[in-house]
Amino acid sequence: MPGQELGQPSALSGQAQGALQPGAALTPPRLGRNPGLTRVVLDLPPGTRYRLVPGGVGLRVELSGVSAPALSAQQVTPEVRAWRVEPTPDGALVTLLTGTPLTGRSGWRAQLVPPLAGSDRSRLAIDLSPALADLTPLMPRERVVAAVPPMSALRGTALLAPSVARVKPRVVLDPGHGGRDSGGVGAVVEKQVALDVALRVRDLLRVAGVEVVMTRETDRELAPDKATDLNQRAGLGTPGTQLYLSIHVNAMPPANALRGYGVETWWNPNHPLSSSFAALIQKNVITVTGAFSQGLKNNRSLAVLRGSRIPAALIEIGYTSHPVDGLNLQNPTYLDRVALGIAQGIREAVVTGVTASGGGR
Length: 361
Description:
6-stranded antiparallel beta sheet; Aminopeptidase; 6 helices; Immunoglobulin-like; MurNAc-LAA_cat; 2 domains; alpha/beta; N-acetylmuramoyl_amidase_3; N-acetylmuramoyl-L-alanine amidase activity; hydrolase; elongated
């Protein structure tokens, strides 16, 4: 939104410039349509106070110091299914129904814009899109994953009697594609973003006490033949390693680009705990990023998952083909948040036993 810092959460309340004019009439909302996003503008009379209340199916705008007749519209845009204005004892209530959940920092943006020359009305501009994620920068204290305790491992001795050792849990991170295989190309190049996020996850986990094996740490493929490349990646998911996670960016064909946005996590029935691991990854990434959740997927057999012998999942962290989600993927703060969510999901899997050597508690 012009003039607004993306890293700052939108204010939930405010007041229009000028002295209050009790009973001044509120005009109907003005809507602007952009690919993947709808802007709603409320022209606020001087002194009007507002309060924004995001919720499960839309946004309420509580106004005081104005008057308004009952108005409504249906099937407005893909992002705004309906809007209505209702008079209240103190002013008016504007409800914007999105049909998708909003949080305090995702699904919407808002800014109070000063009046234009020749007008006394401030403009409350509200952008609505399910692809709008939380781009608030993480504080230093938030860029930390809690310590992961060592795991027990049996080792043979000289007398062939087993002994118990404490070792760091080992996980595999697989940044998708690489080298000549760029993956999806749109607002970002998939192979670059996947590696960027994987390296951030690696650094978070190593500090927390996790041994991290990377399928690649540079822009390269593991083998020139795609099938061989995928098999070699999956082959790192062997006994002794606890978890396997492949990181990717999604894309849709241009004709369907507006339909694809958000985060999804895939699993295959290669291991009894793969679905549980995928669920933990999805839950944590959505919590930290505020991204739209496309949920868990398992209706396709994926080589890097089916070839793994340990709990394995593949996360698609956003759509490079979507005009709003693509901006998320270009934003370093979003990538920070994705990495933190992934690292926290892996930690939760390890400490709760959702691992190759655990029973899953």
